[in-house]
Amino acid sequence: MRAIQVSQYGGPEVLVPIELPAPVPAADQLLIEVGAAGVNYADTHRTDGSYTTITELPFVPGSEVVGRSTDGRRVLATTFDGGGYAELAVVAAADAVDVPGKVGDGEALALLVQGLTAWHLLRNSARLSRGESVVVNAAAGGVGSLAVQLARHFGAGRVIAVASTEEKRKLAVSLGADVAVDSDPEGYAARVIAANDDRPVDVVLESAGGATFNAALGALAGFGRLVTFGNAAREGRRPLIDPALLADHNLTIAGFWLRPALKLPGGFREPLAELFDLVAKGKLHPVVTEYALADARAAHEDLLTRRTTGKLVLRP
Predict the structure, then answer these.
(1) DSSP β-ladder status, 179-182 and 158-163
(2) Are 47 and 72 in contact (CB under 8 A)?
(3) Residue 113 has what DSSP assignment?
(4) Model-level pTM?
(5) Which of 45, 73, 89, 191 is the most buried (most CB within 10 A)?
């Protein structure tokens, strides 16, 4: 089978197309003919060796696939140990979810990691209440483009998108944001507050880290919540938070990682079913960008240089 293999840690250049033997499923696994594999920032971290856990070399990246099982089911599943960047993959049978016919391959992949992340960020981490203002950083990205739409669907009073280019800001507004502003950390808080009719905001969803994280704190209203779910900037030291600053303004900082959230009661199948239903009814529109499997290097390069919008997928 064709696959992408990493034999040494490094940048996108270490993603090499290769022929490998087909994987053999265990008794509790399904063999999937991959229709599409998702591309995530976690894949870039695994590739360069900076992920939270080190993946033993050599390995095939890819933590999510959609495709046909040998019994004909069209399923969506995680492959947290890798193996998704290939024509065939094995997944845990217990974790495979049947995909509705009205949901496309790329749309399904967008919902599995990015969609569930956006859902949990708003529902469980930010605990968004109807009428509150929400700021979505990286609003044209995989999580951000869905969070903008879900915030509106969940009753946010004002949705403020933050993105780095005019094209990305226009995309965010077309998806339902009330207004979009530039993401430059310099002047970030002032722009966000101005976009909220000169009032501090209730919720910020923050994935960049670094200077943007610190700037976002300055935009929060009393009892405001900043939810951090990434460190895409990877710049300088991680911010140090003075507890007095939080107490003085009744602020909350919450962290989020999807993997343990999926194990919570009601954390996986139920919200995924809700997201499937929204897509099938035309109420949620995942933004999907496709690459051929052999172009995995280009997909990683584009992701790391912020040239992409929405969900990136590889087509074998």
Answers:
(1) parallel
(2) no
(3) I
(4) 0.94
(5) 89
For residues 80 and 63, the answer to whether their CB atoms sit within 8 Å is yes
- Sheet containing 179-182, strands listed edge to edge, beginning at the edge strand earlier in sequence: 179-182, 158-163, 133-136, 201-206, 220-228, 252-255
Q: Find, among 59, 41, 63, 37, the residue nearest to 50 by Cα.
A: 41
216-241 pLDDT, tens digit per residue, is 999 999 999 999 997 665 555 566 78
**pLDDT (average), residues 35-64:** 94
Beta strands at 133-136 and 201-206: parallel, antiparallel or unpaired? parallel
**Same domain? 241 vs 296:** no
| Burial of residue 190 (number of CB atoms within 10 Å: 0-12, 13-18, 19+) | middle
Chain-centre distance for alpha carbon 89: 22
Exposed, middle or buried, 305 (CB in 10 Å: 0-12/13-18/19+)? exposed
Domain count, the chain: 2
User: 280 CB contacts (<8 Å, ≥6 apart)?
Assistant: 100, 102, 103
Domain that holds residue 89: 2-98+286-315
**What are the DSSP calls for 219-237, one per residue?**
TEEEEEEEEE---TT--SS
pLDDT at 241: 81
Residue in the structure block whose two tokens are 């107490």 = 247
For helices 41-48 and 296-304, angle between their N-to-C axes, nearest 10 degrees? 100
